[in-house]
């Protein structure tokens, strides 16, 4: 895996751990060049969950999009990337507990807000204030970029 700090592709795994439900394997890696540590996640590819938008349109759940929203909300805040990955994991986990294989963007927003509140007050307020109005991560990311 490419080191996110220096770009070297040589690393060693220092720790591997399965999630409680055994559907994600998390590996702590150490770059052999700069010796910094980072985390990779291995998961089974699944049929994506559908997100129901406010106007009833459906689109597949996009973890990367959620992560972008979280990163923007946590910009310049002391929140480790790993905590955000965990947050996204818990959202995905909650989705897997639903039987319908679809979830409203509103419900996702509420879950994110709840979890962010425990992580960082500023990120929470940023996310909550914008997300409540848009209920859409794309619009949220755009709005936050404009705020800066
Ligand atoms: Zn490195």
How would you characterize the overall build of this protein?
This protein has 148 residues and is an alpha+beta fold. The protein folds into 2 domains: 1-45; 47-147, no CATH class. Helices cover 45% and strands 22% of the residues. The protein is built from 5 helices and 6 strands. The chain has helices at 63-73, 81-96, 105-119, 121-134, 137-147, and strands spanning 11-18, 24-31, 37-43, 50-52, 58-60, 102-104. The strands form 2 sheets. Strands 1-2-3 form a 3-stranded antiparallel beta sheet, with no helix packed on it. A 3-stranded mixed beta sheet has the order 5-4-6. Strand 4 (50-52) and strand 5 form a beta hairpin. The longest helix is centred in the middle third of the chain and has 16 residues, at 81-96. The two termini are 33 Å apart. The mean pLDDT is 85. The structure holds zinc ion (ZN). The site of zinc ion (ZN) has 8 residues, from loops.
Order of helices and strands: EEEEEHHEHHH
Structural class: alpha+beta
Give the helix proportion (percent range). 40-55%
Query: Rounded to an integer, what's the Rg over CA atoms?
Result: 17 Å
β-strand number: 6
Strand order of the largest sheet: 1-2-3
Mean pLDDT across residues: 85
Q: What is the distance, rounded to the nearest whole angstrom, between the alpha carbons of the first and last residues?
A: 33 Å
What binds here, in terms of ligands, is:
zinc ion
Q: Tell me the overall shape.
A: globular
Low-confidence stretches: none
Domain count: 2
DSSP strand content: 15-25%
User: If helices are DSSP runs of H or I spanning 4 or more residues, what is the number of helices?
Assistant: 5
The description of the largest β-sheet is: 3 strands, antiparallel
């Amino acid at each position: 895996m490419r080191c996110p700090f220096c770009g070297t592709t040589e690393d060693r795994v220092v720790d591997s751990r399965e999630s409680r439900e055994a559907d994600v394997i998390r590996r702590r890696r150490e770059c052999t060049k700069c010796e910094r540590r980072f985390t990779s996640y291995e998961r089974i590819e699944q049929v994506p969950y559908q997100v129901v938008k406010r106007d009833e349109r459906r689109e597949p759940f996009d973890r990367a999009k959620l992560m972008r929203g979280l990163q923007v909300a946590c910009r310049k805040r002391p929140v480790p990337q790993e905590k955000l990955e965990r947050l996204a994991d818990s959202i995905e986990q909650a989705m897997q507990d639903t039987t319908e294989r679809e979830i409203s963007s509103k419900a996702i927003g509420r879950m994110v807000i709840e979890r962010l509140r425990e992580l960082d007050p500023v990120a929470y307020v940023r996310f909550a204030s914008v997300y409540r109005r848009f209920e859409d991560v794309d619009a949220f990311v755009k709005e936050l970029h404009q705020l800066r």
